[in-house]
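Dear colleagues,

As part of the handover before I leave the project, I'm documenting each prediction I ran so the next person doesn't have to rerun anything. This entry is a single chain, and its sequence is reproduced below.
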Amino acid sequence: MDSAYTVWQELNERFSIVSGHKFYETQRDLFKLEQGNDSIEFYFHKRKGFWDEIKALEPIIKCSCGAIKDWENKLEKTRLIQFLMGLHSSYTAARGQLLMMSSWPTVNQAFMLLKQEEKQR
């Protein structure tokens, strides 16, 4: 190769395909994830691991218009719904209570509330 730029272009082309495949696999695994017989803590951290991996695979969004805050709020709600959808059916009542709140909790708040309920059981 004649220059570092040429090497970079070739490596980028070669490994960007792997990133696309990895992104697909991570999204697929995230959507299939359910709590099953796992503890709330284990389930939450497994799901959070997928969210963190997807964040690392996605390009960084640069915005100076302030719309990033709206996007982050939407992402938080999406993650809350994903978390609640994967819960074991024994948490149906708790899930309903969280969704009926006038202001939805963050994913971390929902996790802590469900963790407390799990301990009380």
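The chain has a mean pLDDT of 91. The two ends are 64 Å apart (CA to CA).

All the best with the project,
I.
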